[in-house]
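Regression check, magnesium ion case 240:
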Amino acid sequence: MVIHIKDLNKTYQGAQPLHVLKGINLDIERGEFVSIMGASGSGKSTLLNILGILDNYDTGEYRLGGELIWNLSERRAAEYRNRMIGFVFQSFNLISFKTAVENVELPLYYQGVGRRERRRRAMDYLDRLGLAAWATHYPGEMSGGQRQRVAIARALITRPELILADEPTGALDSKTSVEVMQLLKELNEQQGMTIVVVTHESGVANETNRIVHIRDGVIGLIEDNHDHHASPFGAGGLMK
Ligand code: ADP
Ligand code: MG
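Current build output:
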């Protein structure tokens, strides 16, 4: 089991404390492709940030790869993230003075991968995301959708064990969204990568194997999605 969450609670402190996650229980097996679906404000991003060790929780238990994630130093947390997790967020800051391909290959630079191999892999991911022709362009020269795809390629480039994606298609047009979900599906099916996608769109959720519904900080229905091989984004999905 890659993710084990038991009776997890999270309250944002402030003038008016907000109890956002109210006793979450969730197990995710290695190699699963899961979506967490719910309306805006239901606590999806809060949960994903805790899964990604970007935020703390108050009570309960979170185990990642069997290890209890609790009170980690920022250094330990960063170690876990760099080793295990690829993040795909709706708005991912690209480095503005680096080209698309330089942005994508940056994580490989930190892993010590050689220049030619870095460039080859970065170009492969840009190509899969339909951005080969944009490799030497700067983020400022690209559309929002193109920037988003560069950020996704950068998150995928290290082939992390776990991908956490928060509304990964939220800023993309429907055709590009389908391509991105197909890429995630391919990574899941062909490389056994564990992927958790947060979304409020049923068309995106329907591309995954299991749909976990969250509502007001509580997990409701968990659906095994046997239709995920059907053609993506059927009526009423991403098409608005
Ligand atoms: P979702 O991703 O499902 O839209 P979030 O997890 O982002 O929901 O937010 C859940 C609730 O927590 C919302 O009411 C939001 O306004 C609030 N919230 C999110 N982040 C913070 C924060 N850092 N401080 C205080 N409240 C927050
Ligand atoms: Mg959110």
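Comparison notes: The chain has one domain: 3-224. Strands lie at 3-12, 18-28, 33-37, 59-64, 67-68, 85-89, 162-166, 194-199, 210-215, 218-224. No diff flagged against the previous build.
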